[in-house]
Amino acid sequence: MAKVTIKDVAKQAHVAVSTVSYVLNNSKSVKPETRERILKVIEETGYFPNHVARSLKTKKTQTMGVIVPDIGNIFFVEIIEGIEAYLSQRGYSVILCNTNENQEKERNYLSVLLNKDIDGLIFLATSKNPEIPQNTTIPVVIVDRKFSGNYSSVLVDNVLGGQIATEHLIERNHENVALLTGPLTISPYFDRMMGYRQALEKHGFEYLPFLVEQCGTATYDGGYQGLHRLLDRLSEPPKSIFAANDMMALGAMRALFERGVSIPKQTAIVGYDDIPTASIMTPALTTIRQPKFEMGQKAAEMLFNELQNSADSQSYLFQPSLIVRETG
Amino acid sequence: MAKVTIKDVAKQAHVAVSTVSYVLNNSKSVKPETRERILKVIEETGYFPNHVARSLKTKKTQTMGVIVPDIGNIFFVEIIEGIEAYLSQRGYSVILCNTNENQEKERNYLSVLLNKDIDGLIFLATSKNPEIPQNTTIPVVIVDRKFSGNYSSVLVDNVLGGQIATEHLIERNHENVALLTGPLTISPYFDRMMGYRQALEKHGFEYLPFLVEQCGTATYDGGYQGLHRLLDRLSEPPKSIFAANDMMALGAMRALFERGVSIPKQTAIVGYDDIPTASIMTPALTTIRQPKFEMGQKAAEMLFNELQNSADSQSYLFQPSLIVRETG
DNA sequence: TTGAAAGCGATACCAG
DNA sequence: CTGGTATCGCTTTCAA
After folding, report:
1. Which of A67, A127, A186, A192 is most buried, judged by most C-beta within 10 A?
2. Strand D: which nucleotides have any atom within 7 A of a protein Cβ?
């Protein structure tokens, strides 16, 4: 069963390869009869065009690259789902690269991908902000990170999100909301903190540094330990906590549980991201939702458009929203 | 900045393209001086070999396809991580295809991928067992599904897993353990049930159909509803439950919580999979761990070997293990 | 050790 | 409407 090529088809249909190509791509009008004849041969032989050869000629591979920091993180996964949904529908495949929060892997992927066979790149950067090689010839869109350079990007308004979360807490509890944050060098965490401060200010509260705890990593463990530290230095638990992502919130909840402080009675808590686990917990976590799937879709769409219409790079900003559940 | 090709390099280095190719691939000995000269030109021009052209010639694309039923399911994601870890280290990229538990998408991907530019395929099948097109010329390894046909596969001993879980419960509670299972048409669930029955038998218990509840979907909701149904028809909660996956177990826990039955005091529960959320819950879920990452790695390794040594297709069976936590 | 040239499997231009 | 052919960028055989 040697692979059948366009040549074989041409021969069997008694036409030139170019003619076969025309019917394959509908790129030129072909007399119905010949078209039929060719189609029949294709059918019979089970011919299937060779993508690689086609790509060599057209300079288009019909595949996009996606670089993510951690595919174990459901937040990114939902974005990927959005990307995939959009792209697969238009005949694109996606090459997935997991950097595992490892800068070297990231750098490596960046150079491999950019020089390999992808038509475009969607880039979800690792914690520390990296540089994109300058010699890029393909469009790239950045998701969820502010970046210098002329790239498209899709962002969520993290300042607003931080504000909404904090205000919600203030309105329900009227005082001292603590902040449990990830590394402030990561733009989303920085922005959420800004939102927190703005909400405080707006309601006439002072920003109290001893109420904010920065976790080394924005993870369950990070949140767990961070909250223990916070509780250790406070005379009593804060009335409420804004955790800058759900995983930290979950870790914080465990810490609270272990210390015997009841949620939300003694201290309320709101998270950020709305990951699936948040709604499964008992009590279920109140949180800020980011339209992750839509973000992925949008990123894919922007990339697609840049490719089709060589549209200019642009930015798109999504709005987060509050999901009230049981913790605050 | 027009793309520089091997031709350009050859020209600037005053050699033939073949010579450049030789140094690129280390495929023939080249006089050190010429090699240096060529390398220098490559450096200066920033030349990077075109993968597509190379693939066309070599018939190898250095990319593998991976088809998964649901990338939102952490179980599959950890397998993917294993695959990625292994493959990326040997210079392979992976094209990820998410079928979303949709058979048509799956069929579609199967035919696209198999005819496109991948060197091998790792296939995690959707719930319903599909057929792999017969005209496959590339190696395929199946993960976590029994399949007819001459494909490699990596499996976990689900019968054993079901047995371990059930025995653990029996040994701690000594009686009537209920089974909350997913569709029995899916081989892993079928096997776990067999393990359950064997454990029962081994300990002299009768298999009681009214103690087993089959959920429409093996999800949180499925488990939640399934358990409510089970409780509805029983005069009192079973002493223990073996839930055939963690998501169902979590749903069951919520149902139990809502009915005011305490875990594990009144009814103990053990899940299956050991997903991250399982350990985060309060109480933390006792469960059966599957070596997901290793499974992915192994699958990748088998594929890799089939490619390298044209090794024969084979099967590999992993052992599950019990993780005792707080629910049982 | 090096080079010329064939060819991988398609696309698309230019003639007819 | 159809065909011949150059070409995409590389690998590899064969000869020098």
Report:
1. A192
2. 1-5, 7-13
Q: Is B95 on the interface with A (CB under 8 A)?
A: yes
Preceding omega of A276 cis (within 30 degrees of 0): no
CA of B28 to C1' of C5 (A): 18
Q: State whether A115 and B78 contact (CB < 8 Å).
A: no
Pick from A273, A280, A283: which is nearest to A321 by CA?
Answer: A273
- What is the H or E stretch that residue B249 is in? helix B246-258
β partners of residue B213? B180
pLDDT tens by residue, A15-63: 999 999 999 999 888 899 999 999 999 999 999 999 999 999 999 999 9
Cβ of B26 near strand C (under 7 Å)? The reply is no
* pLDDT (tens digit per residue) in A81-108: 999 999 999 989 999 999 988 888 888 8
Nearest to B280 among A53, A95, A220 (CB): A220
Distance CA A271, CA A269 (A): 7
With beta carbons under 8 A apart, name residues in chain A contacting B94: 95-96
SS3 content of chain B, % helix, strand, coil (to 5): 45, 15, 40
Residue recorded with tokens 């939640």: B224
Q: For residue B71, which residues of chain A lie inside 8 Å, CB to CB?
A: 71, 77, 80-81, 84
CB–CB contact A96 B98 (8 Å): no
Rounded Cα distance between B311 and A297, Å, is: 41
